[in-house]
């Protein structure tokens, strides 16, 4: 489901769409927070993909959807 960018928080699980070169289409990623600048990010193939800038003109998160907490991938995903 789409989510307002302002509602994304530490610990949320997102599903990536096909618009990334560093994250596989459909990959489930956990929202983490940088200890220095407090910005939210997800782990990607090149390190960190910061979510700042993934907000559209209407305030919605672009490139990710919020994972339903009952989704089976959530139970099997490795958390770092």
Notes on the structure:
- The protein is mainly beta.
- It has one helix and six strands, in the order E-E-E-E-E-E-H.
- The strands form two sheets. A three-stranded antiparallel beta sheet has the order 2-1-6, with no helix packed on it. Strands 3-4-5 form a three-stranded antiparallel beta sheet, with no helix packed on it.
Span between N and C termini?
Answer: 24 Å
Total strands: the figure is 6
Helix and strand element order = EEEEEEH
Q: What would you report as the Rg, rounded to the nearest angstrom?
A: 12 Å
Strand order in the sheet with the most strands: 2-1-6
Explain the layout of strands and helices.
Blueprint: E1 13-16, E2 28-30, E3 32-33, E4 40-44, E5 47-50, E6 64-66, H1 72-76
Antiparallel strand pairs: 1-2, 1-6, 3-4, 4-5
Question: Could you give a quick summary of the protein structure above?
Answer:
The chain has 80 residues and is mostly beta strands.
